[in-house]
Each structure stands twice: as C-alpha cells, then as structure tokens.
Amino acid sequence: MLNPADDALAARLPKGVLRPITPAYLEEPRRRLTGQAGLVAAPRNVDEVAAIVRACAKARVGIVPRGGGTGLVWGQILPQGPAPLILSLERMTALRGLWPEENVLIAEAGMTLQAVRDAADAAGRLFPLSLASQGTAAIGGCLSTNAGGVTALRYGTARALCLGIEAVLPDGRVVHDLKRLRKDNTGYDLRDLLIGAEGTLGIITAVSLRLVVPPPNIGVAMLQVPGPEAALTLLSLAEGRMAGGVTAFELIAGQSLAFLAEVLPDIRQPLPGAPWSVLIEVGLPEGLPAAAALEGLLGDAMERGLVLGGVIAQSGQQAADFWHLREHIPEANRLIGAIASHDISLPLSEIAGFIRDAGAALAARGDMRVNCFGHLGDGNLHYNLFPARGRVRGDYDALRGDLSDLIHEMVVARGGSFSAEHGVGRLKTGELDRWGDPARLAAMRAIKTALDPLGIMNPGAVLSATAGQAAPADGPDRS
Amino acid sequence: MLNPADDALAARLPKGVLRPITPAYLEEPRRRLTGQAGLVAAPRNVDEVAAIVRACAKARVGIVPRGGGTGLVWGQILPQGPAPLILSLERMTALRGLWPEENVLIAEAGMTLQAVRDAADAAGRLFPLSLASQGTAAIGGCLSTNAGGVTALRYGTARALCLGIEAVLPDGRVVHDLKRLRKDNTGYDLRDLLIGAEGTLGIITAVSLRLVVPPPNIGVAMLQVPGPEAALTLLSLAEGRMAGGVTAFELIAGQSLAFLAEVLPDIRQPLPGAPWSVLIEVGLPEGLPAAAALEGLLGDAMERGLVLGGVIAQSGQQAADFWHLREHIPEANRLIGAIASHDISLPLSEIAGFIRDAGAALAARGDMRVNCFGHLGDGNLHYNLFPARGRVRGDYDALRGDLSDLIHEMVVARGGSFSAEHGVGRLKTGELDRWGDPARLAAMRAIKTALDPLGIMNPGAVLSATAGQAAPADGPDRS
C-alpha cells in the first residue's frame, strides 16, 4: 500500500524498476527484527540507480541498499522511522568482464559471491573471499561491509581484494573507477572509503576484483592443541615454515564440537572431545606436496608440545569434511540458541589472556556455556554465550546487555574491536559511539555530512541517528 | 628572516620546536624547483604536532608536512604563494613497540623506512616495503604517499602494510587508532583515506605496521625474455607454480643495461646486451629450495619459448649483485639526464601493446631514447625519455610537454594511471584535473573541504588550487 508521498516518488522513478514488496525484503537472517516497509526498486543498470537516488534526494526519502540480505548487524533493514526506498541490486548480476591473464574480474554488485567464485574457477582462477553465506551474499554487499571470512589470513578481507569500484554517490553522481590496476596513486582513496561504509556514503554498483592463480598443492589438517596460546605459537611456527602459504587457521573450542555432537550428530568428528583444536589449510608451490609440508609441521609442533595429535586429510573428500565441520558450527549455535554473540578481534598476543579472563568473569555472572571459535589467524573470534544445559535463552534476558557490555569492555581494554568483520549496521551504533575514537568519529560525521548532506543514504546505519533522523529501535538481541 | 606574521605565529608555537631554516628543507630530490621559505617546526610528540596545527589554523598559515623529503612530485615543497610552516617529523623517530609474535610494529612517522626494516630484522621479522630511497624516506611519508617499491607484487603497497594510524587532523584533533588488529569493521576507513592523501587531510604521526616472517628459502634470477608480452606470460607461469611466492618481478630494458654500461661501467651485468630481461625474486616455504624451484620454472619457461636464457643466483652475494644492478637504473638515468619521466601503470594485458604503440608514436615525434623498466608484476612501469646520442636535454625543451601528454593520453586510453606509485603532489594536479573521474574529484573536494575548511593542510597538493589558494608554478620539468 503506497502512501501519497510514495506515489509522488514512484512517479519519478525509471519505468519498471518497482517490485512488489515481500517479507523477504524486510528480514535479517536471525529474524529478530523486521524492517519498515516502503517502496522496493530493483534497477537494471547504474543509470537507473543514479535516477533512483536523485528521485529519493528530491523526495527526501531514505534509501536502504540491499544485496543478498545476509548481513548480521541490521544494515539492510530500517526498523523505525519514515518508510524508506529499498534499493535491491538483485537485477544487476552481470559479469562485466574477466581477464585471466591479469587476474582481474569485473562484476556487478548483485552477483552472488558464489557466482563470482564460480566464474573465476571456470577461468582457472580463484576469487579467495569465502563465507558461509556465499551462495546468497551479493558481492556488492561483501564490499560494502568489507566482509572477512576464512581466507583473510592469507588474502585479506574484501577490501584487499578490490581494485576499483563503480558507485552512485548520494547526489546521484556516478563514480566510474573500475580500474584493473594494482597501483594507482592519483588522489584520495574513495574506493576504500565506500568499502565498509555499509551503504551510508553511496551505493557500490560494480567492482573490479583481484583474482589469484590457485595454489598447486593444497592441504588441510585438524590438529588438537593444548590451548589458545599453543595454537598461536603453532600459527607462528606454521607461518615461518610456509612462507605465506597458510590460507586458513581456525580455532575450534571443545564446546563447538559438543554442540555439533548434540544437534548435528551426522557430522563426522575427526578429533571428538578435543578441548581445543585447529583447522589449518595450506596452499603451496609446485614441488612441495602439502601432506609432506603438513607432516613436517606436525612433527616439529609435536616435539615442541604445541600439538597433541591430529589428522592430515588424505583426500579432497576428507579435506571437505573438515571444512564441513567448521562451517556447521554457526548452524549448531543457531539450533542451540545463543544468549548473545560477539564478533570480536584482538591483538594476537592478547587472545589467550582474554579467553582466560572473560571465561572467569562470565562464570562469576552465572551458569552458562561459552562457544569461542573462529578466525584465530586474524585475531578474530566469535565469542558466543549459550544457556547452561537445561536452561533456555529467555532465562538470561535480564543479563544479556550486561554480558555483552562486559565482553566488549574486556575486548576494548586489550586493544581489540567490538566488530571485527560484521560491521556496525544499526545493531552496534551504540558501541561505536561509546568506544570509537572521538576524533575519528568526528571526521566520519564530517565526511558523511559532506557527501550526504540530506542524510538519505542508509539513514541510521554506522553513525547513530542525530537530530532529524529517527533512531532505530534497540532490538531484542545483540548478534 | 621572519616577517611580522611569522613572529605572531612563532609566539603561539610550543617552546623549542622551531628550527633554523636551511636549504635542505626547500629542496626536492631532482632539484628542479625550490620551496617557499617559512618557519620550520620540528615537534617532539603528537601533542606538539596538534599545538602547531592549531596555531597555524588560527594564523591561517599553510602547513607543509615533511618526512625524508624524497618524494618525486613536489608534495613536500610549496614553490609559490604565502610562506608556509614546514612541519618536519625529524624528531619523531621512536620505535613505540614491536610484537614479533603478532607480526606488528608501531613506529613514529619520522623513523626512516630503513630503520623500520632494521628493527623488524633484529626481531627476526621482515617489514617488506622496499624502495631505493629507504635510507632517507620517512615511514610517515611512505604512508602519506602510499609508496610502492619492488615488493608490492607480493605484499602490496604501503597501504596494505598499515594496520592503524595516529594522526592530527586539520582542526588539531588527534586520531588515536594505532590498532594491532587484522580485522576491524567499525566505521569508515579513515586510515586508508589519510594514507595516500599526501598530507592534505592531516598529518600521520605514527603507524602500526604489519610484519611478516621472512620466507625460509629466497632465490633470485635474471632471465632474458623475448619481450614484454613473453615476460607477462612468464609472470603468470611463475605465479601459478609458486603459489604467491613471487616477491618481485622487474622488467629491465636493453636501454637500461646500455645506460648502466655507459655511465656506471663497474656494475656487473649477467646478461649484457639483452634487449629485455626480468629480475625475479621468490621466497618459498621450508622444504622447497629456491634454486630448484627457479630451475623448474626456467626449464618450463624455456620449453615454452618464454625465456631465452638466464642466470640463477648461486649465492647471497650474487643475488645482491642482481639487485644492485636493478637499483642503479634510476642513478644511471639521472646521469644520462631524462627529457621526461613517467610513473605509469596499466592493466597487465595492455602493457605489451602500450610499449609497442608508444615507441612508434615517439619515434614519429623525433629522435630520442626510451628507457622502459620497472615493476612489471604490478603493471607499473617507469617510462622515461632521453636525448638521442649526441644531443642534450635542452634540445627537447619545446617538445617536453607534448611528449608527456602523448604518453599519459595513451596510458589513460588503455585504462592506466598517470601516477602509479609517486602520487600527485603539486606536479600532477593538472593531470588529475584532466583525467580524474569527475564524480570522484567532486567527492575528493567535498572531503577536503569538510576536514580542512581553512585549506591549511599542504595547500595546493593533490587538489589543484582553487579560488583563494595560490597556484603552484608549472615547474621546468615533469618527473
């Protein structure tokens, strides 16, 4: 149902871009919050995006850009305030070009990450960004949120894999900067500013991406370690031996395995009951078989007491099984039902101390289970709290906010971040206000005002609402 | 000699920061232009930097930040207009911390790149950024200009090696963001915005840097190739075999070798007279000797006709000799005396065509010598023009501007950049105005105005002077 203001705006849009609104446009993955309904526009090309942005500027209607909708911090939904226009990139899915000899691919923003990876693969190349949600996540959203995933240790986050962008600025101007260049020092880094801005400074409509030649020898192992500190020493040892060849280094807590055994018992566990284990993947040069390299590492590490045992995958299927286990930890978490989740990063040398101290502090607050796992090589942990056995999520409603504050305080005190890879969205604007560097926040607000003086681009995301903007609701959970 | 305005400003500065002005503060490396004299202030800490910036804002005096002074595009000198305050980072040279287990180092901006590299080395780590001028270049300047160098192929430019910054904004506020984190998605990427802004948005006073464990097996070879196209196919082959292990891939023209033979005859040449050659460095894992890997590559490449012959360094000394040759090409160029130099980048698949077409177009303009060499793996060439034998630089004065325009036009037409790694400074603002994307330029100006409304930060650099700012002189040469 359109209101009169919607009618006026709809009349100004390019023909054929409006789509019927469905609940899917108003959802976020954890279904804890629903967005405001409004117009849904799905442009077919960058000129239509620009026309929509200009029309919204004229009508003073906020724009919520939407890719695959897989973001976890409510950047893709506007729960309160005036109805926005939802700008879906779902029709801009073209592969604009692929240059295998340059290791470059240009994709439109609505292409899924999986489709980008498949296109690279078909040309004998690898686009290394890899996330659990890659079948749905749009590449434009991955860039807008600077997505991380399991290969950031080796290849960096999405930002490091982007050579150039095409984007529509809040005034409707189009930045044409889809360069296929590794080096270009001609002025301010507008690309990296729009990457990670979560749609608040403009809409990324296409991206030029860096590909790599897949490593000839790939190996995967799961290793039981005495604890997080030993895991980090093992990482350092592995990096020293592998010369940049460590692709992934994931920490898995005993609690992760216990949850998997409880709710996904069909998943095979190579190290059942291990209190701490690590999944390592290496990608090595011609002439160096991965199994031999991993055996060398394992021997060295066991001698030093860094590894208690382990399994080196003997086939591609076994390697895939190890990854299957790792990738189903979030699903097991969902089935158990978290009290609160935290996407944190820490300086590597602070991790072991944080895990120890946070565990002790939480134990003093009440009976609960902690599942601490994730991208240890990046210092990025998912530190999630669950009800004690026999209790339910609702039992902790009164505690939830305090628990998250406690975790975030301990993280920030050790020089860490309260959002390592998920972004700020609308869920964590309060945290950013509280813990962000004041001078940096002031500069962010100055940039926002300079580029989007009307405040129409994804209003209320990243920067908390100021006068004239509606504050988003405090949702029922912290992700 | 101070003028009355200087006196008033000087009185507002922190005690003891003023330094006597010497010609060194007004020079750029090629000595084609001299900066305006003004006050020179050398603060000892970030608070003094902030106090100086606030005093200059109050007095409306422009600030020219200065690191090692090695920039090649006049970003460090203000040749015209009101006398600036030269803010030298020469006293801020402390190593604030080094965490080998995290692969992180925090340095003050005035520390030289060599000192940073040495500090990492002493801890068994490598800071990979490597430039000919690293003994003088300050790390703050390297970041402010997003320096490139010979290892960007593997490790990225300076931007990719920086985890966090401390910086003074144009209003005197201090951004404290010296994070030791690989992942931190909490808002706009102010770090990457200040990196490469050449001091026009603020002054970087300290940086948190990413180190790596040095690869266990390092190998260097010089290989003669049939031409640039074969060199690029060789690069692709090498990257496929080495799994990210190619550290450097430098193109050397026959003209480079001829100049070296002419003016630096003591430098040993392993492939004398080779019309095109490549210097490749690899850094490989434990268990894979570099010489064996290079021999495997060489055999494969010779079979495919990509390499005509070559020498694999048999010792560290021989490897150092090969690099010695490569690093003295700029010195040979200086001794010969260029008509014009160009720091360009191109999509890799455009390079061979550009070299062919540009050579033909220049031949039609007159008799001259072309020295085309550089970081081929990054698509970054130094394409420099020299007088024909028996003629001198001055003979080409009338042609110079047209020649550079021709080169830059051909580069831009192929999707390339007129400044790959040196930046814009004051030398290339005209090129940026001409070839920069208009929407991107408008956004850059909006950001500049938002963060530096008084226009005091390195006035006239990057963005050409607008009303109220003095235009820098068109110097006698393009670098």
From TrEMBL, chains A, B:
Keyword Membrane: no
Pfam families membership: FAD-oxidase_C (PF02913), FAD_binding_4 (PF01565)
PROSITE patterns (UniProt xref): FAD_PCMH
Domain FAD-binding PCMH-type span(s) in chain numbering: 33-214
Keyword tags: FAD, Flavoprotein
Statement: the UniProt record of this protein carries the keyword Flavoprotein: yes
Highest taxon of source: Bacteria
Family that this chain belongs to: Belongs to the FAD-binding oxidoreductase/transferase type 4 family.
Protein name: FAD-binding oxidoreductase
Organism: Paracoccus mangrovi
Lineage: Bacteria, Pseudomonadati, Pseudomonadota, Alphaproteobacteria, Rhodobacterales
